[in-house]
Design a protein that fits this description.
Chain lengths: ~1100, ~220
């Protein structure tokens, strides 16, 4: 068999997919490293060289009220009295205009520009840390959403200021335990316009009047929710804004002289009321500043900026309140709020404009140095430019301070220019989607899916001439990549790896399509009768069959947030539908029931294939029973699901919590027994299956693994659960032992797993050979051999799972030149018997998957053992359904697809992977990752990050891994079960075929390779289509309210799941090829033995 | 070729469909504050009852039902009893399937059972009327060459349409639109009903267009 081309084609397909994903994700997900340092009062930021305690100075304002009205767009805040017929959202906040005109030196209104992503949580992060949050802020702490970077709230707390918060409960999760007093209200229900606002209003005024606060943060959500529900152009919005107008009035009335009012929106909204994207309507919010005492030098002047970036609020507020600027802020102080150089400080204290700017510049420069030391994502040339700029202005500034001369006006502007340059650089690095990369990624992914489909349809001709056809795409890809790299080097001086990869992938795809066209054409020409059929493999009729409609529905469901939230149930529903479809479809084709003896059929076309009513009935019963098993395990698996926070009335499965957390000891024992029993059944089933097909008779590595490693692993696991479930204080005197066991047992299990997998890899053969003379004494549990000479070319003999005589056929195919000199065999007495040869391919694979499954179970909570048992049962049911339906079709002559696996089982297989992703308690959200997996066997934590990361990955994608590894079983199982059919046929007196089982594959190596390739590409196609559609969802819905909560995490999980599936599918296929090589060697060794 | 049967079938279907509408309209007139969503169970039972009564009487009058071999009263009674039993069993069967599909097991068992009653009266009842209480015959009808008369083909079409309608009806349930018809089991039963009505229209039309190609084995 041609193993290498299959592997190379698969590798290449996976690589193309991954390049597409990489490209898209690179343009879509913005990654930034978090700097976990905090500013302190002792930081040397003052003009002089000597350290000054910065916080001791008297701040400009003692207190501040920060009113955040979610989605307060700048258009809502402006007032245009000339409008006679204002829209519902216009002119509804007259208080701002009144204040601005009557007290120009106390108030200002600015457009307040947010950075994308314009979602509330990211914005809160933005205007408290002063940095540009991205979707993935890589920090130390993935599990909670708390902000670890230095921020205003933290600094205020450090300074002893009492921060009182009320409103949107997002703040509470971002700043847990940071507030002096906190009154969060649930923000989840978008339909609810009033809960949060009314909750705030109940407390706002009483709190303001009292004296137990320094900074008051109130976050109103009504306007945002009103936008989401009705859109801005709706009377409800007018009501809401009018309410806000009253609120602002009352707050202004209650302000004291030393208090600053900051009224702001965190982002804007589109005309439909959505936000999240980067259009100006979404980014431009309003910022209104007011104080009862004059804060501005006069009415708005040239000095005032047109637009205030959101990050600028952070340094401004920090310096006005006399706290250090948060460490990673890249904002720039709002100059009009500080007194200009000529004017002395006057009555109120505070910094001059230049001092404020200098402090700001020093802080930003310090952050930039720290960040560029940690991460390399800022372009080096711009970095060096910024450094140069800083050196110049700092020397200017210091010299002017030292000499005491008044600083030039130019200096202020160059300081400002520096700050702007830094912010622009950072923004270019962190806060912008890259639509070109996203589009390129989408295109490559789309083509890769199409390519997979074509590959699966043309697998046979491709394999037939793959030797020549493979090098060309690789060469094309390399050439394209290299040329793009060269072009980039020439024009821009440096090459970006992403684009080179993209060019390579894209060109190789195009080249493949060209090759496929060429391959398809001769196929059409060769068999003229089938020309029409093979030319039209993309017609609607072939695509609109249920097995392809179901994945289509699945992909479509990824585009809706409701369906993604309910994904576990959606997938189960679809699986269930497809499982019901199989028997219904078979019945529709008249294959499920034995055909009635009616005259039309017997006179007809069928050359009466081997079919007896009893066989058909037996197969049908098996099929229905397996369908029942499948449906039952589908139903039971629903009880293992976890809950997303969006699903309001949902109880997470009781099996998800680990045993040690259960209080009631009776329930604990019950759970433990259930888990151990499930584990035992899993192990027993695996062993029984191997034993049944005679794979446990040999003495090789794989058999050793099956006999000893598998049970030992299970025992280890059971003991580990028992130990980890013991309460801390119940066995005091054994505490040391328990601690040791907690460390040793899982590690022993890991070692056993490694040993088992390694043994299977090294010696995958599970065939037991014995000479004819030994008789069947060894196989006592097997029925005695029966021999039967047939009229065929070779003597035929068959036995239950015992395939003698195979080597004769093999010898013919191996040494075709040599005359088959087995004169001794002509008498119908085979010289060699081999147990387990019929399942030589599937046994190691099954064992590999089983060992891996038990190993992965180790990383899960104990209760999941039952879920893994269901997984095994469902896998078995799927395999048997597939085998039975093939046998039924084959028995009645309706199926003649060689070894090809039809779409239905592949679709079922891939959907089952997703289904068990949910049924093992996982969800495509970051908070639901089971972090405890990282501490299995490492209870004291880790030093590196690779081991915990890989453990968590293995835990999260366990079902993807298991289904991908065992995917080739779909190819083998009909052959494994073939013996049942022919046995039945023999019982009915029919002339059944040989029980050759998987040896058929060796007889047709080319068909074997093509079927393997087809199966893998079909599986990859279904998975790839899912990735493609979730990528589409993320790209199309990047302004959707739920993009960062639902679609982006879904994309990450889908992409990582695909990566793991690819990896382990390749492992599975490689294992099959490894077995094939071993079988080939075995035959070579056997033939001289036998002829001796 | 089948003109007579097609005409009979079209009128039968028209009568059944009008009975569905009549049941709904009568409810709306006589029950104060009636709406299909608000009093859904009432609607389901009314419609099921109407369809059952009308189908049984129409098919009995038309004489579609397979001829009984014996004419003794006892045989007829046992047939009636078997039919009732099958009706009940089919309700339970549909209930199980719907629960396996993901309907809540305990909470809204009454709603689920009502849906299964509706499905039974739309599908199984017709099987009973056309084929009599023979499960073997039912299974055989749903295969490519299983139809033995125009009525069997119509049966295939209506049953498939009803079930597909109910299946499609489950799609809007997870959406977060908060509409009254997304409540379990409104969308499914309405979907099933729409599918059934579609099937009633589609069956004679399909048979009419394919009348040249339809061949049936003799019974």
């Amino acid at each position: 068999m041609k193993g290498l081309p299959v592997l190379c084609l698969l590798l290449w397909t996976c690589a193309v997919y991954l390049v597409g994903i990489y490209l898209f994700v690179g343009g879509f997900l913005l990654v930034r490293l978090e700097v976990n340092r905090t500013s302190t009062c002792g930081d040397v930021l003052e003009p002089g060289e000597e350290p000054v305690d910065f916080c001791r100075a008297r701040p400009r304002f003692r207190r501040a009220v920060v009113l955040i009205i979610d989605a307060l767009k700048i258009d809502f805040a402006r007032f245009d009295p000339s409008k006679s017929d204002p829209r519902p959202y216009e002119n509804k906040l007259p208080v701002l205009e009144e204040t601005l005109s009557s007290k120009p030196s106390q108030s200002r209104l600015y457009p307040f520009r947010a950075d994308p992503p314009t979602t509330t949580m990211q914005r809160i992060k933005g205007f408290t840390t002063g940095s540009l949050p991205t979707f993935v802020d890589v920090g130390n702490n993935f599990a909670s959403s708390a902000i670890l970077e230095d921020n205003l709230i933290h600094q205020l707390g450090q300074m002893g200021k009492r921060v009182v918060f009320m409103g949107d409960d997002t703040w509470e999760s971002l700043f847990p335990k940071k507030f002096h007093r906190s009154l969060p209200f649930p923000s989840f229900n978008v339909k609810d316009l009033h809960t949060v606002d009314n909750g705030i209003l109940q407390h706002l005024y009483t709190t303001m009047v009292g004296d137990s606060w320094d900074v008051l943060v109130a976050h109103f959500l009504g306007v945002d929710h009103c936008g989401h529900r009705f859109g801005p152009d709706h009377p409800a919005m007018a009501d809401k804004l009018t309410q806000m107008d009253r609120v602002i009035r009352s707050v202004i009335d209650r302000l004291q002289n030393d208090t600053l009012l900051v009224l702001m929106g965190d982002h804007g909204m589109t005309d439909t009321g959505d936000h999240g994207g980067e259009s100006q309507k979404e980014t431009d919010a309003a910022l209104f500043l007011y104080s009862p005492s004059p804060i501005f030098p006069g009415p708005p002047s040239q000095m005032d900026p047109d637009v205030v970036p959101q990050t600028d609020l952070v340094p401004t507020l920090a310096l006005l309140l006399g706290i250090p600027i948060p460490y990673s802020s890249v904002g720039q102080v709002l100059l009009p709020l500080f007194h200009p150089p000529g004017v002395a400080g006057g009555a109120v204290g505070g910094l001059s404009q230049l001092e404020a700017l200098w402090i700001n510049v020093k802080q930003v420069n310090r952050f930039l140095e720290t960040y560029s030391g940690m991460a390399k994502d800022i372009a080096p040339e711009s970095l060096s430019q910024l450094k140069e700029q800083f050196a110049r202005i700092s020397s200017d500034y210091l010299s002017s301070v030292r000499e005491g001369r008044p600083p030039s006006a130019q200096l202020a502007s160059s300081l400002q220019a520096y700050l702007t340059a830094v912010r622009d650089t950072c923004r270019a690095t962190w806060a912008r989607f890259n639509p070109l990369k996203m589009a390129a990624g989408l295109a490559i992914l789309g083509f890769a899916c199409l390519m997979c489909f074509v590959l699966s349809e043309l697998s046979l001709p491709l394999i037939q001439e793959a030797g020549a056809g493979l090098k060309a795409p690789a060469a094309v890809a390399l050439a394209a990549g290299a040329s793009v790299a060269a072009a980039q080097l020439l024009t821009r001086g440096h090459a970006e790896a992403a684009w080179c990869l993209a060019a390579g992938a894209f060109c190789s795809e195009l080249f493949f399509f060209w090759t496929a066209r060429r391959l398809n054409a001769p196929a059409v020409l060769k068999n003229g009768t089938k020309a029409g059929k093979s030319g039209r493999w993309l017609t609607a009729r072939r695509l609109l069959v249920p097995p392809l409609v179901v994945p289509l529905l699945r992909c479509a469901s990824l585009l809706s947030d409701s369906y993604v939230i309910a994904e576990g149930r959606v997938v189960t529903f679809l699986l269930f539908s497809l499982a019901l479809y199989i028997p219904i479809h078979l019945n529709w084709d008249g294959l499920l029931l034995p055909p009635s003896p009616d005259p039309l059929k017997t006179a007809g076309l069928l050359p009466s294939p081997a079919l007896s009513p009893s066989t058909v009935r037996k197969e049908s019963c098996a099929l229905l029973a397996c369908s029942g098993l499948l449906i039952g395990s589908l139903f039971l698996s629903l009880s293992f699901h976890g809950c997303r926070e969006e699903q309001g009335l949902c109880q997470p499965s009781p099996f998800l919590s680990s045993l040690s957390r259960l209080q009631d000891s009776q329930i604990k024992n019950l759970h433990y027994i259930l888990s151990v029993v499930s584990l035992g059944i899993c192990t027993y089933l695996l062993r029984h299956c191997l034993c049944h097909y005679g794979n446990l008779n040999a003495s090789g590595g794989a058999v050793f693994a099956a006999r000893w490693v598998l049970p030992l692993l299970s025992v280890c696991l059971g003991l580990h659960w028992a130990v980890s479930a013991t309460p801390e204080d119940s066995f005091r005197n054994l505490a040391e032992l328990i601690r040791l066991a907690q460390l040793a047992l899982p590690r022993a299990a890991f070692c056993l797993l490694g040993l088992g997998l390694g043994l299977i890899w090294l010696d995958p053969l599970t065939v037991f050979v014995k000479a004819r003379a030994a008789g069947s004494a060894r196989g006592a549990h097997l029925p005695p051999p029966r021999y039967r000479a047939s009229t065929g070319i070779s003597p035929q003999a068959e036995l239950h799972h015992l395939i003698p005589q195979i080597y004769q056929r093999m010898r013919r195919s191996l040494e075709d030149g040599e005359p088959a000199g087995g004169g001794g065999e002509a008498d119908g007495r085979p010289a060699v018997e081999a147990y387990g040869l019929g399942t030589v391919y599937s046994a190691p694979l099954l064992l590999f998957g089983g060992l891996l499954g038990i190993g992965l179970l180790l990383l899960h909570p104990e209760g999941m053992a039952a879920s893994f048992l269901l997984l095994l049962l469902e896998m078995g049911a799927l395999l048997y359904i597939h085998a039975s339906s093939i046998t039924l079709s084959g028995l009645q002559g309706a199926y003649s697809g060689g070894f090809n696996v039809p779409w239905t089982p592949v679709v079922l297989w891939s959907l089952a992977a997703t289904q068990f992703f949910h049924a093992t308690g996982h969800l495509p959200t970051f908070p639901s990752i089971q972090w405890s997996a990282a501490f299995v066997g490492f209870p004291n934590g880790h030093t590196g990050t690779i081991v915990p990361a890989s453990l968590v990955t293995l835990n999260t994608f366990a079902s993807h891994i298991l289904f991908a590894v065992s995917c080739p079983l779909l190819l083998f199982w009909p052959l494994v079960c073939e013996v049942r059919g022919s046995r039945g046929g023999r019982g009915g007196g029919e002339d059944g075929e040989d029980a050759v089982m998987e040896m058929r594959l060796r007889e047709n190596p080319q068909q074997f390779s093509s079927a393997l390739l087809q199966l893998s590409t079909r599986y990859l196609f279904i998975l790839g289509a899912q990735v493609f559609s979730s990528v589409c969802a993320a790209a199309i819905l990047r302004r959707h309210l739920m993009v960062w909560k639902v679609f982006a995490p879904k994309l990450m999980f889908e992409a990582s799941g695909f990566l793991m599936s690819c990896l382990f599918l390749l492992v599975g296929v490689t294992l099959v090829l490894r077995v094939d090589v071993a079988v080939g060697r075995w035959f070579k060794r056997l033939v001289p033995d036998a002829s001796r | 070729m089948w003109d007579h049967e097609i005409r009979a079938m079209a009128s039968t279907h028209a009568i059944i469909a009008s009975s569905v509408f009549m049941a709904t309209v009568l409810l709306a007139v006589f029950v104060p504050g009636f709406s299909v969503y608000g009093m859904h169970l009432l609607w389901i039972y009314a419609v099921s009852g109407a369809v059952t009564a009308v189908s049984v009487s129409v098919f009995w009058l038309l004489g579609i039902s397979p001829p009984t071999k014996k004419h003794t009263l006892g045989y007829k009674l046992s047939r009636l009893f078997r039919s009732c039993l099958y009706f009940l069993l089919s309700c339970l069967f549909f209930h199980t399937v719907v629960v396996l599909y993901g309907a809540p097991l305990i909470e809204s068992a009454l709603e689920t059972f009502s849906l299964s009653v509706l499905l039974t009266s739309l599908t199984t009842l017709r099987c009973l009327c056309v084929l009599g209480p023979h499960v073997q015959a039912w299974i055989r009808v749903f295969s490519r060459h299983g139809a033995m008369s125009v009525w069997d083909t119509a049966l295939q079409i209506t049953v498939a349409c009803t079930l597909i309608g109910a299946w499609l009806g489950a799609f809007p349930i997870p959406l977060d639109w908060d509409r009254p018809w997304q409540v379990w089991p409104v969308s499914c039963s309405v979907g099933a009903m729409i599918g059934y009505l579609t099937g009633l229209v589609a069956a004679p039309a399909w048979i009419h267009y394919h009348r040249k190609h339809l061949t049936y084995k003799c019974k």
